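Entry type: protein chain
Record version: 2
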Amino acid sequence: MSGGKQGLGKVEVRLRWDPSPYGEPDRHLDIVAATYTADAPYGKPAYVVHYDSRSPDGTINMSRHSRTGMGLGFVEVMVLEFERLASAYGRVVVGVVIHQDGGPRTFGDMSNAGVLVVEGYREMLADDFTGIADATAATFAEFTRNASGAWEMREMIRGFDTDPVSFTEEMGRTRP
């Protein structure tokens, strides 16, 4: 945290899942973050960060990525440095998407899947996707700036039935 403001500093989003059974195509999940400007918090994302990208200023990036799950705990990690995020941004939505290579898959098809959001040693959110078992993608956390400029997190678990590209366009919209 900087400037004496209370709020979030450096947050990690961690993702786990077990690999596919022998002989089946790999199960590939990805953490995705969409960043919105302060003047259009529900418009089109200013930028999206996922496995092969990072934010333009380096404040949101993947520190660990897996294409198979490996079954060794949290195998994919995204780091969000809110204390360094420019004041032009007012909202970040984070979710998980399942790649649909090898046929349709939902969270219910995943074994030992889960997401964890932490700041330092403080656990802010943990979910195992059972509430959205029929979804192919999901949001789970919304980060917003409050009136003083400090960042706060709100749980936002919503399932989507969509492909990875469409998910990045839909994930930050409000529900009708």
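Comment: Strands lie at 10-16, 29-37, 47-49, 60-64, 76-81, 89-98, 114-119, 122-127, 137-145, 151-160.
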